[in-house]
Amino acid sequence: MSSLKDKKLFLLDMDGTIYLDNDLFDGTIDFLEYVKSIGGRYIFVTNNSSKSVDKYIEKLASLGITSVEEDFLTSTNATVLHLQKKNFHKIYAFGTTSFKEQLRKGGLPITDKLEDDIDCLCMGFDTELTFQKLEDACILLNRGVEYIATNPDWVCPTWYGYVPDCGSVSQMLFNATKRKPQFIGKPEPTMVLLAMEKTGFAPEETAVMGDRLYTDIACGVNAGISSIFVLSGEGTLEDLEASEVKPEFVYENIRQVLNDISK
Fold first, then answer.
1. What are phi and psi of 53, to 5 degrees?
2. Helices 131-143 and 166-177, interaxial angle, to 10°?
3. In sequence order, what DSSP letters do the residues of 38-83 get, joined into one string?
4. Strands (E), the chain
5. Cα distances (angstroms) measured from residue 80 to each of 101, 147, 213, 219
6. Are 104 and 76 in contact (CB under 8 A)?
7. Could you give the CA distance from residue 151 to residue 165 in angstroms, rounded to a whole number?
8. Cα separation values, 223 from 82, 98, 131, 169, 251, Å
9. Looking at the DSSP assignment, which residues form a beta bridge with residue 45?
């Protein structure tokens, strides 16, 4: 097992890892300061595709964390890069207003109306979901268009529990059409590889921290880097016992991680 003291690049999930809804977890700011003090970097890596980076900067500021655009990688960032490599004529963007704006900024030909020349359905975590979008998606999937989704998360944490995330909505569409999407975000290694390329840190200097085994920890495993499983969000020890995906490190929360690596 490698040592966390060797790590310089920390890829941090957000919901359930550094905060829950509007409550910042104890130890988060101290952890971020520690990483900077050792000459390291942290990047917030999230599967939540309902918000733009600007919105995350605003949210973190409200919690007392100053951040800039370079501090983030989202599943939407990775999805835009994937779609830019394709040559779609028109993409139906199934998601929030913010999600659609991010796709447009990436120079992609998108629409949110059902049209004859659509050849791709791209779905994100949609907090503005309507039945019309579900119906449009079913029509398009039955036509055989290519189907891409930002992330496979079943739920998104809130202060009162959980709400259905992109993975749950894609399961609804599978029940109706028998079509499954190609997921781009975690557990695919794309965002980890982008972060290492962006910062210049090597795999052995990099660790991902998150509260979901099937996305955060699996992403670390798939990318060949260390993974830190925190029990402050969705995942539990019971989930860990039942999972084939195993993290390298397990902690109750980010404060315990800091206490260990700063000894």
1. -60, -40
2. 50
3. TT-EEEEEE---SS-HHHHHHHHHHTT----GGGEEEHHHHHHHHH
4. 9-12, 19-20, 23-24, 41-46, 72-74, 91-94, 110-111, 120-123, 146-149, 155-158, 161-164, 182-183, 206-210, 226-230, 249-251
5. 11, 14, 25, 19
6. no
7. 8
8. 17, 28, 37, 26, 21
9. 73
- 41, amino acid identity: R
Residue 160's contacts (CB-CB under 8 Å, 6 or more residues apart) are none
pLDDT in tens, 130-189: 999 999 999 999 999 999 999 999 998 888 988 999 999 999 999 999 999 999 999 999
pTM score of the predicted model: 0.81
Q: Across-strand partners of 73?
A: 45
Q: Is the peptide bond before 189 cis (omega within 30 degrees of 0)?
A: no
The pLDDT value given to residue 221 = 97
Which residues make beta-bridge pairs with 161?
158
Q: Identity (one letter) of the amino acid at 103?
A: L
Helix 97-105 crosses helix 75-84 at what angle (to 10 degrees)? 40
Answer yes or no: are the C-beta atoms of 161 and 193 closer than 8 Å.
Answer: no
Q: Which residues make Cβ contacts (< 8 Å) with residue 137, sequence separation at least 6?
A: 92, 94, 121, 123, 173
For Cα atoms 203, 256, 64, give the angle at the middle one, nearest 5 degrees. Answer: 85
Tokens of 88: 């779609």
